[in-house]
Design goal:
InterPro entries: dTDP_dehydrorham_reduct (IPR005913), NAD(P)-bd_dom_sf (IPR036291), RmlD-like-bd (IPR029903). By secondary structure, the protein is of the alpha/beta class. It has 9 helices and 13 strands. It has helices at residues 15-22, 52-62, 79-100, 131-146, 166-176, 194-206, 225-235, 264-268, 276-286, and strands at 4-8, 27-32, 43-46, 66-69, 103-109, 151-155, 158-159, 181-184, 188-189, 192-193, 213-217, 223-224, 244-247.
Length: 288
C-alpha cells in the first residue's frame, strides 16, 4: 500500500520543511486551523485540534497509513489551549489511529525533563518542571498507553537555515526595538536541524514502523543557549552589538539547566543528526 502521511501542525515552523520532505516518502495531507495556512505541496485540510469529533472525522476521511502529530501549543498561548492540543488532542489521535490501524509518530519534547539528571537516555523517565513540559509528557503517555505501537520523539530546539526560527526572530525584534538581550551561557541544549528531524520523523512513519516507545532525536552537538543564539544571529546577519549580555541561568527558578540527551536508538537506525556547527559549515561550503 502506498504511503499516505497525515501531518498535524502543518502551518508551523517544523512543517515548512517537514511537508516538502515528506512528499519524498508518500502522499501528504496537512492540517491546520486554517487550511490556507498549510505549507505546500500538501493537500490541505482545516482542523481544530480542540474538537475531538473533528479530529475523528478528518482521520476517518483521509485514512492515512501514518500520522505525524507535529502540532503543539507553546507557552504564552493560553494554558487551556496548550493542555487541550498537547495532551487531549494527542489522546484522541491515538484512539482513532488505534481503531483504524494507523501508524502514529508523536513529536514530543525534551521539555519533559527537569534538567537535573542529564544525560537523558531514550527511555529516561520524564520529570517536567513547567506546564508546557507537563502537557507534552501527558500527551506522550496518553499516546503510548492507548497505542503502544506508536513512537514518541523527544526533540530539542528546532532551527533551519532557510527560514528564521521563532526564538531568533524574537531576538531580532527585541534588538531592533533597542531592548537589552540576555543569553544564558550555562544552559545546555542540543539544537536539531529541521531537515534532519523531518527525515527522522518520516522514516519512523514509513520505514521503521516497528520502532515503538520513546526515543530522543536531537542534534549531535551540545551547546549553551548563548552559543546557539549567537550562531543563529550571525547566520541571519543580526548585529548583536552592546545590547547583548551573557548571563547564568542558575538563579532562575525552574530553569532546565542541562538537557543533554543520548540518541542511541536513532543512531542504531542510521539516522544522522548533525550538530549546529556541522550544518552551518555545510551550508557555508554550499553557498561559496
Amino acid at each position: 500500500m502506498p504511503n499516505k502521511i497525515l501531518i498535524t501542525g502543518a502551518s508551523g515552523y517544523l512543517a515548512h520543511r517537514l511537508i516538502p520532505i515528506a512528499t519524498g516518502y508518500g502522499e501528504v495531507v496537512g492540517t491546520a486551523r486554517k487550511a490556507e495556512s498549510v505549507y505546500q505541496p500538501a493537500d490541505a485540510l482545516s482542523l481544530d485540534l480542540l474538537d475531538a469529533d473533528a479530529i475523528k472525522r478528518v482521520v476517518e476521511k483521509v485514512r492515512p497509513t501514518a500520522i505525524i502529530h507535529a502540532a503543539a501549543i507553546n507557552p504564552g498561548c493560553g494554558d487551556e489551549m496548550m493542555v487541550g492540543v498537547n495532551h487531549h488532542a494527542s489522546a484522541t489521535l491515538a484512539e482513532v489511529a488505534s481503531r483504524l490501524g494507523i501508524r502514529l509518530v508523536f513529536v514530543s519534547s525534551e521539555s519533559g525533563y527537569s534538567g537535573n539528571a542529564a544525560p537523558y537516555s531514550d527511555h529516561a523517565i520524564p520529570d517536567p518542571s513547567n506546564l508546557y513540559g507537563t502537557s507534552k509528557v501527558a500527551g506522550e503517555q496518553a499516546v503510548l498507553s492507548i497505542l503502544p505501537e506508536s513512537v514518541a520523539v523527544r526533540t530539542s530546539l528546532i532551527y533551519g537555515l532557510d527560514k528564521i526560527d521563532r526564538g531568533t526572530q524574537g531576538f531580532r525584534e527585541r534588538l531592533k526595538r533597542g531592548e537589552p538581550l540576555t543569553l544564558f551561557d550555562d544552559v545546555l541544549r542540543q539544537p536539531v536541524w529541521v531537515d534532519s528531524l523531518s527525515h527522522a520523523l518520516c522514516r519512523l512513519a514509513t520505514e521503521f514502523t516497528d520502532i515503538t516507545g520513546t526515543m530522543n532525536v536531537v542534534g549531535d552537538e551540545v551547546m549553551s543557549r548563548a552559543v546557539f543564539g549567537l550562531a543563529m544571529m550571525k547566520h541571519w546577519c543580526i548585529e548583536a552589538g552592546d545590547n547583548v549580555s551573557l548571563v547564568s541561568g542558575a538563579e532562575i527558578k525552574g530553569m532546565q539547566m542541562d538537557l543533554r540527551c543520548s540518541c542511541e536508538r536513532a543512531k542504531a537506525l542510521g539516522i544522522t543528526l548533525p550538530g549546529v556547527s556541522e550544518v552551518l559549515a555545510l551550508h557555508h561550503s554550499d553557498t561559496h
